[in-house]
Write a structure and sequence with these properties.
Oligomer: single chain
Strand content: 5-15%
Radius of gyration: 46 Å
Largest sheet: 5 strands, mixed
Order of helices and strands: HHHHHHHHHEHEEHEEH
Distance between the termini: 54 Å
Shape: rod-shaped
Strand order of the largest sheet: 1-2-3-5-4
Number of strands: 5
Amino acid sequence: MNELTPTTRALTWCLHLLVFGLLALTAVRAVADTAPDAVTVIAVAAVLGLVYAAGPLLPVFSRSRRAAAGWLAVVGAVWLVLLVLAAEGGYLAFPLFFLQLHLLSRRAGLFAVVVTTLAAVGAFAGHQGGFTVAVAIGPALGAAVAVAVVWGYQALYRESERRRQLIEELTATRADLAAAQHTAGVLEERERLAREIHDTLAQGLSSIQLLLRAAERALPGQAKAAVGYVGQARQAAVDNLAEARRFVAALAPPALEGGTLAGALERLCATTSARHPLTVRFHLTGRPVPLPTPHEVALLRIAQSALSNTARHARAGRVEVTLSYLGDRVAVDVVDDGIGFDPLETPASDADAGGFGLPAMRARLHALGGTLIVESAPGRGTALAAQLPTHTASPSDDEAHR
């Protein structure tokens, strides 16, 4: 049995009151008409009332459909006895219709309603001494109303259940989608943090390490050179600390504050030349145009990473860094004369062995709609080209292309 709602509970109590009211009416009419079997009618009505009351009171009838059907059969049998004794017992057919349609299956309930209707019509005809159309209309109309009401309610209940299940599925789907979006956001943020750490802190610490090694080699014979290396390492630490603070605060790189991308790249080239045994030259081609801050940050980070990789691994003597404004695109090219490598055999990402730089560059550019091209061969140097569009599509542009 389904759990009763406030509405169905109220309807159930109305049905109980109707049954006991009709039983009381049958008993009162038997006494008022001074029927010879009035005592028997009252006794049978009382028995029917007790049997009917057992249904709602005993839990077994609410838990088992078979037990409920058996209880309904006993109620029907006692009702037939009352129907033979008093014509007013026929009025009880109407609440019985609802019980039969509710407790039995659709086919069995409809069959029980037909049988109950025929029994009520036959009893009325017997008590009135003959069959007439009026005798049949009352029970038949009551049966039709009961079937329409119960089946209509069941249809509405099934529709309500389907909608409830749909709402639960939508709620679960929304929760799954929110969890998936949260997971995607976490992974995206982790990837962003990995790129930022690699392009700032890791590269800066690598430069400090190289400078301190150079100072160590210069001691004790070349104290002045060693002091110079230590000073450069100290300045690299200061710059790295500033990067870390801005990184935590999610601000733009200090090199871009109050300046242009070309100026930041030129300072980067000068700093790299001062800190490493490299000659790094900067070139600017094309007419500079304003770029979104994420684009400038990406190109600066890529240049930093490329120069750091060159200083650590390429064994190069010269590096050319070119910033090119090409109309609808902007490009940063980093070309060195180092030992080169095979791009198809780049090492996997590893904190100790390196190899995270190129995947990080590609991911950074891909997120902004750009491309990365790397050309190299053993003994022939390396050329790296990073390109980005000079503008981003606005919402109105997107809608215009749909």
